């Protein structure tokens, strides 16, 4: 079964063709980094217009790369939530039109479910049940993936997402947008560790929940204080200590979720899953508790159409299709 996957939830237009939920036939991504770098972050209106300009041509390129004609498609899968509403509507309306013209099913896919499904493309042996750690610019959560389309949130951030904190920390350290990789590279250059004491929040009544707002504020205050007082700021050490603080917020909660649920397989997903320090900490923790760990390759951590097509395959098998009245949602629970 060949499914065209369309992703436009934020600042990347992505279209892919995936066969049977596991084999990537094509995976095209149009980045908007150069457009948003001028502003130090994503401008929703600019993102929406860029999606409009890119999506038709990108679809044709994806079909060509897959050696696939429109009539060869069996369904269209599209991200409908969560994300920037204008950006989502661009991809959704294009997908609706294509599904209507080709008279094939339209499959709505939750963005975070798509990130989790990126692991299916990388690991043929991976099957639910397992625990999923989804860490991205807009979401940070731990989910119990009971089946391909049945998931339950065990813990989530109470405020900011981990990726949002990385972007903010990178900005105050003078790093280019997007800040994830530059911050990771800077942290790896640190000659000292534990230089900066950063706060770690605990949610008393929800041991698997997380909070990053205090950590983000602490980094901003440290950078601003150094600037105002003229004191030297060890940027590499702060980048490292910040990253370790994020990791120390996330990794122990993942291992606690293993203890609570009895699951022995963990999958990471989302753009922040590309961070080298967090990946190392997850590997080390899983080795210590004897749990299996699946880390998607770096090219499947960020937003892409292949992950939407992959999850779309399993949503289709579960009978989850939609009509032309399907709407987009800026926020939506994964379960």
Cα distance spanning the termini = 25 Å
Largest sheet: 5 strands, mixed
Biggest sheet strand line-up: 3-2-1-4-5
- Determine the structural class based on helices, strands and strand pairing: alpha/beta
Strand content: 15-25%
Oligomeric state of the chains in view:
single chain
- Global morphology: globular
- What percentage of residues falls in helices of 4 or more residues? 40-55%
Count of helical regions: 10
Task: Note the topology.
Elements: E1 2-7, E2 12-19, E3 23-31, H1 33-36, H2 44-65, E4 75-81, H3 85-102, E5 106-110, H4 111-122, E6 130-135, E7 140-147, E8 150-156, H5 162-172, H6 180-187, H7 213-229, H8 235-261, E9 265-269, H9 276-289, E10 292-294, H10 305-317
Parallel strand pairs: 1-4, 4-5, 6-9, 9-10
Antiparallel strand pairs: 1-2, 2-3, 6-7, 7-8
Describe the overall structure:
- This protein has about 325 residues and is of the alpha/beta class.
- Helix content is about 45%, strand content about 20%.
- It has ten helices and ten strands.
- The strands form two sheets. A five-stranded mixed β-sheet has the order 3-2-1-4-5, sandwiched between helices.
- Helix 2 (about 45-65) runs parallel beside helix 3 (about 85-100) and helix 4 crosses helix 10.
- It is globular and about 65 Å long.
């Amino acid at each position: 079964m060949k499914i065209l996957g369309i992703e436009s939830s934020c600042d990347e237009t992505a279209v892919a063709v995936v066969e049977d939920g596991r084999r990537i036939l094509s995976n095209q991504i149009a980045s908007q980094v150069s457009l948003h770098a001028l502003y130090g972050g994503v401008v929703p209106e600019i993102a929406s217009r860029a999606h409009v300009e890119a999506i038709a041509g990108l679809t044709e390129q994806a079909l060509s790369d897959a050696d696939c004609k429109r009539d060869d498609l069996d369904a269209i899968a599209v991200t409908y939530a969560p994300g920037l509403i204008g950006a989502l509507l661009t991809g959704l309306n294009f997908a609706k039109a294509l599904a209507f013209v080709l008279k094939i099913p339209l499959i709505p896919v939750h963005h975070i479910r798509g990130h989790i499904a990126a692991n299916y493309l990388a690991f043929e042996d991976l099957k639910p049940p397992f625990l999923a750690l989804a860490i991205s610019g807009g979401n940070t959560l731990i989910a119990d993936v009971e089946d391909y389309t049945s998931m339950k949130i065990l813990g989530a951030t109470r405020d900011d997402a981990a990726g949002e904190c990385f972007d903010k920390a990178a900005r105050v350290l003078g790093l280019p947008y997007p800040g994830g990789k530059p911050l990771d590279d800077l942290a790896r250059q640190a000659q000292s560790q534990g230089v900066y004491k950063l706060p770690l929040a605990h949610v008393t009544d929800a041991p698997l929940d997380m909070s990053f707002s205090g950590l983000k504020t602490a980094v901003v205050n440290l950078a601003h204080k150094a600037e105002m007082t003229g004191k030297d700021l060890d940027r590499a050490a702060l980048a490292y200590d910040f990253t370790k603080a994020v990791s120390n917020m996330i990794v122990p909660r993942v291992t606690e979720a293993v203890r609570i649920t009895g699951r022995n397989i963990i999958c990471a997903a989302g753009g922040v899953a590309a961070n080298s320090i967090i990946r190392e900490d997850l590997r080390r923790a899983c080795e210590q508790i004897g749990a299996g760990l699946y880390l998607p390759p770096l090219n499947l951590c960020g937003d892409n159409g292949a992950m939407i097509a992959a999850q779309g395959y399993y949503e289709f098998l579960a009978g989850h299709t939609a009509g032309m009245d399907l709407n987009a949602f800026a926020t939506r629970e994964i379960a």
